[in-house]
Amino acid sequence: MAQKDLPAAERWYRRGVEVVQELIRQTHDPADHQSLALMYYNLGIVAKTRQDWDAARNWFSLALELYQLAAQQSGTPQVLQALANICGNLGYISYIQRNPVEAQGWLEQEMSLRKSIARQSGTPEAFQALCGCYEQLGNLAVSQGDTGRAISWYQRAYQVLEALAQSTASPEIRNQLGRIEQKLGQLFH
Residue 98 — φ and ψ, nearest 5°? Predict the structure, then answer.
């Protein structure tokens, strides 16, 4: 999303929030709550793109609350995916705001959700997303000077990606493998 598109996107999302809130008042349909959560999530992405970390955290937190309610009611793969994405974003924001303990907590929640999604779906994309989470936990460990923990996270990602590379021709998986291999190489030298 280009910076010049951010004000327009934000206006549309805010208008969407108003429309969905009115629908909720009229219909009380639980599906409308997920639509509202998506609008909040998108406003979080806009704020994150602007590097307005406090606003992003606020929007993601609002989305998280609604998606957690949806997960209690249905727990569909889409809801779990949304929760994982929100946790990952909150982890990133915590990292940027120099709160590594909070970042770790969010990333571990994301990892738990991504494991569940990977087990349920069994798709290469779900396992690749889980490996991305392992990679982020490794990056966080590196930033804290914990080489041993970083290596452990990177090796987890590598093992899963290596198995995926044998079963699929995805160039993205090979790119991710190369990135992990590079990070492991830097830690061992």
Answer: 60, 45
Q: 120: number of CA atoms within 13 Å, CB side? A: 12
List phi, psi (to 5°) of 33: -65, -35
pLDDT in tens, 40-77: 999 999 999 999 999 999 999 999 999 999 999 887 88
Burial of 19-41, coded b for 16+ CB within 10 Å and e otherwise, reads ebeebbeeeeeeebbbbbbbbbb
Q: What is the pTM of this model?
A: 0.89
CB 154 within 8 A of CB 183: yes
pLDDT digits (tens, 9 = 90+) for 116-156: 999 999 999 999 999 999 999 999 999 999 999 999 999 99
Amino acid in the structure at residue 181: E
Q: For 76, left (φ over 0), alpha (ψ -120 to 50), or beta?
A: beta
Nearest to residue 6, comparing CAs of 46, 39, 40?
Answer: 46
